[in-house]
Amino acid sequence: MKTKITSDQLDEFIICHKCHTLHKKAFISNGSKAVCRHCKSVLYHRDDALIDKGLALSITGLILFILANVFPLIRVDILGQEQVITILSMISRLLESGYYIVALFVVYLVFIFPIMIFLIYVTLFFLLKTAQKEKLVQDLLILLSKILLWNMSDIFLISILVSLVKLMSMLEIHIGLSFWTLTLFVIIDLYMTRSIHIGELWKIKEEIYREQK
Amino acid sequence: MKSWKEEELIRCPICEAVTIDQGKKNICRRCNSKIYQHQKFQTEKSWAFLITAIIFYIPANLYPMLVIKQFGHEEGSTILGGVIVLWEMGSYPVALIILFASVFVPLLKFLLLLYLLISVKYSLGNDSKVDKHTLYYITEVIGPWSMIDVFVVAILAGLIHLSSMEMVAGTASTAFALSVFFTIMAASSFDSRLIKEKR
Fold this sequence. Notes:
Chain A is α+β, with helices and mostly antiparallel strands. Chain A has helices at 50-70, 87-96, 100-130, 134-147, 153-168, 177-195, 198-212, and strands at residues 5-6, 13-15, 22-24, 33-35, 42-45, 74-78, 81-85, 172-175. Chain A is built from 7 helices and 8 strands. Chain A has a 3-stranded antiparallel beta sheet. The longest helix of chain A is centred in the middle third of the chain and has 31 residues, at 100-130. Chain B contains 6 helices and 8 strands. Chain B folds into 2 domains: 1-37; 41-194, no CATH class. At the A-B interface, strand 1, strand 2, strand 6, strand 7 and helix 2 of A face strand 1, strand 2, strand 3, helix 3 and helix 4 of B. Strand 1 of chain A pairs antiparallel with strand 1 (3-4) of chain B, so a sheet runs across the interface.
């Protein structure tokens, strides 16, 4: 592309997040996606029901995450004694043994950031649906893009599986109810980060509030 | 109407809009975020985080990650020690996951960031065929994977604490968590505008 681009045309373009190739946006039908011509990664989707879907998924995710913190994740029997673990008991145990820095990382990466992200999603989709408080929506979108990188609940799920294998040879282990709700939460979380790009939310936001004015 | 060439356009890391590169003081036209704001530093910040991460990676490998206290005597295992034990136990997939996450990923990230930071300042012969944008993307994506070992230690220490058998976190877990944190910071403070490949 050798042509010059004027300032009102900027919205018609998109830069690939992976290889930084500049593309002119093309019209796509509902339910399909546009991919980069260079690296084949997804540039944008078109989903007319994105807000409703997003609201439903984020409320489900939030409920699942709360349930994942209420019940035990793993239960072990050691010499007749039963031990259980939840995300919060794991963190308090780290604090008791004096590992404040590790505890701080764990509490942020697997508790505070995931719950923040889903609370933001719920508020965001609700505000977009009812088309109010444009400034708050903007601030939430900026905050969301900054903390999205620091959500590690998927890595945490793999860590649970690794620790199960490590303990399997020594002890009798039972998988708790929270393990399954956490698995479902991670599936929803992965689906949402894959299918909802922040750039698309900005575009939808602009369309919604432009109609209002 | 003012117009811009393709090379002058950048992607806002906050809202993903196409916006105009204004040099050292950049404000995104859509979300009004300050992006790529450095007055004097371009690579120095990233260098500082990277060096800190490498320094923390040394004690993370030398000190025990997990200490097992059983019937009065203590036994600590380092990252590599843990991998060897798992391998001997026959859990090859898990041993490989830990090896990949705790040894391979951090080292790969250090090397990729070192390469990117050096190659944007000094020309390294004929490296125009290397897709540095993709390399940078890889460093950003694989970052969180190295936290696996820290989480495993947190889970084991939280689960097993009896008078007869107790597992506690070791010194290396703090060093390792900090090392991962600083590599992620190094990757996110890297100025991707310095990569001037044709798109």
